[in-house]
Amino acid sequence: MVDPARVLGFLDPFGRWDPTLAFVLAGAVAVSGCGTLVRLRMRRPLFGERFDLPASRRIDERLLSGAAIFGIGWGLAGFCPGPALADLSLGLPAVLVFVGAMVVGMWIHRLTTRPSPKPDAAALRGAS
Amino acid sequence: MMVQPDIGPALSGGALIGAASVLLLLADGKIAGISGIVAFLLGRPKSGTGWRIAFLVGLLAGPPLVAALAGHALNITVAATWPTLVAAGLLVGYGTRLGSGCTSGHGVSGLGRLSPRSIAAVLSFLATAAATVFVMRHVLGHVS
Q1: Helix A61-77 vs helix B82-98: angle between axes, to the nearest 10 degrees?
Q2: Quick one: DSSP state of residue A100?
Q3: What residues of chain B lie within 8 A of the CB of A26, using their CB?
Q4: Distances (CA, A) of A88 to A74, A94, A99
Q5: Given its phi and psi angles, is residue B114 left (phi above 0), alpha (psi -120 to 50 degrees) or beta?
Q6: What is the reported pLDDT for A128?
Q7: Helix axes B7-28, B50-70, angle to 10 degrees
Q8: Residues of chain B positioned with their CB less than 8 A from the CB of A76
Q9: What is the per-residue pLDDT across B29-81, written as a single tens digit (0 to 9) for each?
Q10: Partner B, chain A 36-75, Cβ-Cβ below 8 Å
Q11: Which of A65, A71, B31, B82 lies in disulfide reach of B125, CB 3.0 to 4.6 Å?
């Protein structure tokens, strides 16, 4: 997964298709699934107070468009956040360029996103 | 035409990724979503940094450890040009924040809990990623 060539090979079923990543994902999800079975039997994590799981279950436009945009970026260079960070240890300029741009992209999202409106004290009091 | 996959190493590698995710979840109750971890730390938070930094340190130490155990350096092939890398990085950074996750958060953790949001996200990014590769390689003729 840290090799973009392998990732892009997996994403290229019309070319020389490399199914390796499918097995990586299968192994990961299988273990993760077992983890879920264990978690469901636990009231709290071993060292924490509670399980910090995403609360939202809505499949909304932000989720789908965000994932779609991420996918385009992934398909362009074959890097996603985890492997790109792991690859930093290789000292390749290309990886630094990608990670740098990724940080900028995250920052642009933060700058351009208004937080969802929360009721303020005045609104709750009924003030106009 | 298909490349012969290295099934053993792929499954084991994947299982290790899954194990890392499970360990973080059962021990600390946190989701190992890398884009979320990075974005959180970029916000210069005053707390909640411990486990996140530790996780990233472990992540960065992975390849050198594997190289040491294998006895040779890890080799990767990056064919993308720098402009492509910049565009890719921007889209990955922006998209993972908008979409609340990436392959680790949605793909590994989310699918592992059969989260409908994650299933939808994974289908979405797999589709656009494959479409992008198709256009890059087979329409535009880039070597990527």
Answers
A1: 160
A2: H
A3: 11, 14
A4: 17, 9, 8
A5: left
A6: 44
A7: 150
A8: 80, 84, 87-88, 91, 132, 136, 144
A9: 999 999 999 999 999 899 999 999 999 999 999 999 989 998 888 889 999 99
A10: 36, 38-39, 42, 44-54, 56-59, 62-75
A11: A71
